[in-house]
Amino acid sequence: MTHLPTEFPDFGLTPQQRRQAVRTHYYELPGMDGERGEIWCYTDRFCYRPSETVALHVSATASIFRLAITRDGCTEIKVFEKAGIAARWQDTPDQCSVEGCGWDASFEFRIGDDWPSGAYRITLEADGRDGKPIHCYHLFIVAPQPGKKPGRVLQVAATGTWLAYNTWGGSNHYEGITGANRDQYARMVSTQRPWCRGFVVLPKDAPRVPLEVAVPPKTVPRYPHMEWAFATGHSKKYASSGWASYDSHFLRFAERAGYGVDLASQHELHFSPEILDGYDCVAFVGHDEYWTWEMRDAVDAYVERGGYAARFAGNFMWQTRLEDDGRRQVCYKYKARAEDPAYRGGDVTRATNSWEAPEIGRPGAATFGLNATRGVYAGWGGCAPRGVRGFPVYRPEHWAFTGTGIYYGDVLGADSHIYGYEVDGLDFEIRGGLPYPTATSGAPDGLQVLAVGMASQVEESADVPLKDQFLGDEDGRFTAETLFGEPSDANLDKVKRGSGMIVNFPRGKGEVFHAGSCEWVAGLLRQDAMVECVTKNVLDRYLGKS
Ligand SMILES: [Fe+2]
Hints:
The protein is of the alpha/beta class. The chain has helices at residues 15-23, 96-99, 159-165, 224-232, 243-256, 266-271, 293-304, 336-339, 365-368, 474-484, 489-495, 520-525, 529-542, and strands at residues 39-43, 47-48, 53-60, 64-72, 76-86, 105-110, 118-127, 133-142, 152-156, 188-190, 260-264, 281-287, 290-292, 308-314, 318-323, 328-330, 371-378, 391-392, 411-412, 421-425, 428-431, 434-437, 448-456, 497-507, 510-515. The strands form seven sheets. Strands 11-9-12-14-25-24-23 form a seven-stranded mixed β-sheet, sandwiched between helices. The protein has a five-stranded mixed β-sheet with strand order 2-8-7-4-5. Bound molecules: fe (ii) ion (FE2). Fe (ii) ion binds next to loops.
């Protein structure tokens, strides 16, 4: 066991700045770097096929810029470079997070027929007003050509969640500058804007959300990731979502381990579900919280027909809708019952609420075996900050653990801290020392619970005053109301104790394996041999290699 420090890391902030880092709303907006100048960009879509044309929309204080495009896998391959491209400063609407930036396209390029599927990083560089370079990073995905891909994995990047957390322009599905008082989160977010700072590239020492601190007794929680973001000029949400914090670690691991991996965005699941047909195994990783009805249809049908879905991800929480050909994502979330037109003469099954809202009739467990409303926080704030770190294993004889040497009662991935910061679970009971889903849990038939840890929907502590709680009981009250009609204390008590699980179940001719934790990828990033072994066991079985 690694020995953890007993003090929070220090990024040079004053106590007041530390409070600002956590409590205030800060975000990327044009002009934020002042005299130095800036360059920003976005592409017209998240994802392209070979030979398609990408429109790059650039706004810059400089009149020319340099462009490099690099495939970002276990090795980096530069595929395109060009200097001397003309740019200009473009006006940005105040509500750009919702409406899109509306910048003119500045440059177009064609995806080469020989560019392998994957994630491609765009680096823009120009001269700042002080003569020093200014940069912008963007990412787009190249999806595979249609056809059979024997032996290859299709990874679906959690782009719905990237979009939900993107702070660029001031509003996302969490915080925002919408509404009369400019203090509301955005119910709609646009793809037509740059990614916030830290979604595409991050330094190696950027903290993850789960605490790497042995928290002393009676400690008021601190949030190193937000303090680091504030201190270094990164997005407040850099550790909550994005390619750099999550999806990239699975792709790099899989390529390093010798797997052929293709990449798609969730837009492909929604608009071209036939993309799944070429694959024996489809993988979902990281923080994967926002899905449409159509995306679930695609996965359900694929597994029914004999496909294998491997989910190493947490927080399967919200239904979204896509509008404007996928350029706008809608999620009313906590305000859905009050504001979403789906409740006023629309199709209420498409309401942008939690999947477990009874009126939707489609709990998350029906697709991936676990529910976000029965899981949630672990390893940070006032939610199990001294919790398990890994998955407590109950069924070590399961095929997923072959070759790990793991025992009943061992904790999988504790050193690499794979358990947190949001996890998915089920209501369960222990019989004869083994966990089983309860009869009313909504678990699919034949579901086996391989591992279970504890999680919490609320921060409750006699030692932490309400003003120092970041999460409080808001999410727990919402879950109580969503599931049981009223956010009462009695209903809160029914939902506040959650769990995080690894489960496996058959469906039709296929199968689902689900390790329900955002942080599984931390085990791949930190090269935890046991976590790598379980991941390979799942991929090998689903690719027909074992
Ligand atoms: Fe989340």
